[in-house]
Structures are given as structure tokens and as C-alpha cells.
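Predict structure. Chain length: 311.
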Amino acid sequence: MTEEGHIGFSNEKINEAASANGEFFGALSFLKRNQRTGHFVIHVYSNTFDYSPFLQRSNIRGRDNRENFLERLGFTFCESCNILSVGKCYYKVMEEVVSGAEREFTIESRLHMGAIHEAFKKFISNLKPIYDQMVSVDKMLLEAGIELPWADLKLRPIVHEAGEKVYEKGYVYDFYKDIREITQQAKNEVFLIDAYPDEDVLNLYLEKTPSGVKIRILTSEPNKNNVKAYQNFTNFVTVAQKFKMKPGVNFEVRTSKDCHDRLFFIDNNCWVMGQSLKDAAKKPTYLVRIESHDLFRKVFEDLWPQAQILV
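Prediction complete.
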């Protein structure tokens, strides 16, 4: 039985997109079905058609009333769509969730919501090349007297990338283990940006960095009026000076007033942290690998030469 993609307590459009040439356009909606469940739904349509007997994009029928492209992908026609401006669509439920859970401002739900939006955008942007390939195959098969059913095509479950980690409050040790594992993979350099480091940054997270790996830390000197933060800073500097004296260590610390972020580079990978290392997972936090690491690295590489040498 096909899940209905329009009827419920509310149906809110949360994203929209079109293929590069405009042949296909669509929207993503959150359909609150009842008090307990909700659906993320893709709505898509195409006004482009031709008079050939081959695979059509949308609801224009060819010969023998054959299923069109969107129907072959498992989408269902609705002639009274309350999401698309044309008033009709082909729709498919992406995922069912506990109603409201994806609307809360938790780290986990933000990452999940981001993955859903990204999957929707990729689907719409790929519809034209997918159609072009399918219509070509359909034409060859039809001319050879073969009808391919294309039945039961399904969307994959939405997951966020393995490079995204979320930590509930109290999971400090789990966070520590993950950071330690990541830094131990370094072959050339560890470049840490953290405005509020303490001695544990060196004693726990960087102490096991492989020999010969260059280590840089960009931080910021706190105001002396902030007694606790400044004490953590001075403790960090004391340990950093001793750390630098270790045989074979290539280590440097610099300070900049423009350092406010919390991230680190391991060779060509960039990771963003929700909290400074000293506080990580004492409250809910996250660790996310950034794909566009070059853009992030340039910002802090430009900042490094201007920063004051501390250790």
C-alpha cells in the first residue's frame, strides 16, 4: 500500500529545487500525519513532454498507456497537490519519523535533517541525466520488443555520513577515544585551532601523535579578569613548553585575537568540534568532518603568519 503524501495534520514545504534545464522541478515537505508520526515527502513534476511512444517524463501518456518515468521510479500521481504551485505532482515518502523529533534543535536532528535535504537536492539535480539514460535504454528495449518493468524501485534509508559523530552529555571518554584515534592517523601534521585549550589537550589528545608529525596549535589568550580561563591557559603554556622539549618533537603554539573557532586538521582532513577539547561532551556536542577542507585551511593558514609565537 502506497503511503499518502498530502493528507495529515499539516504539510509544510521545507525545500524546493529544479533540474539544471528545468525539465523537472520538485519540493520536499514535512507531512505531520498525526500526533505520533510524520513523513518527509518528495513532490516532483515535469511539464516537458514529446509525442514519441517512448518513456515520458511525467503524466503525458505514450502508446499503450505505458507507465511514465516518475511512475517507473515508484512515484504516485496526485492531481491535488498542496505543495507544488502547479497543483499536481508525483510524490514519494522518503522517511517516516516520530512526529516533531526532526523539528527539535538537537545536534542529532540537525545532522539528520541536513542529510535529508542533501539527499533531496541530489535526487532533483540527477533526475535529468537519469531520465536521459533510462529513455535511451527504454527505446532500445521497446524497439527490440522487450518491456522492462522497472518495478519496486525504492529510496535508500537516509543516514548521515560516517564522518559525523554526536555525543550525548557525559560521553567524555568516547569523545576522547575518537579524537585520539583520529590524531594517531596523522602522517604529516596536526593543526589544532582552539581558543580555550588546557593541559589535557597535550596530555591526552596529542601526546600519542606519531613521532615526526608536525603539531601546530592556534589559540587565543583569555582576559586575565576571567580567572578560571586564564589559569587554564597558563597551565597549558607551562605544559606546552615542556612538550616542546621532547626529543624529535616539531611543535609550535601561536596566539591570535581572531581565534574563536574549534577545529583541527589532520593532514588533508578537517574536523569541526562543537566545544573546546577541555569541555567536550560535558554537554552534548558533535564532531563533523568537513569535505571542503581546503577552504577552511586557507582561512587559518592566512591567520597563522600574523599570529604571535607563544611556544
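Summary: The first strand starts at residue 10 and ends at 18.
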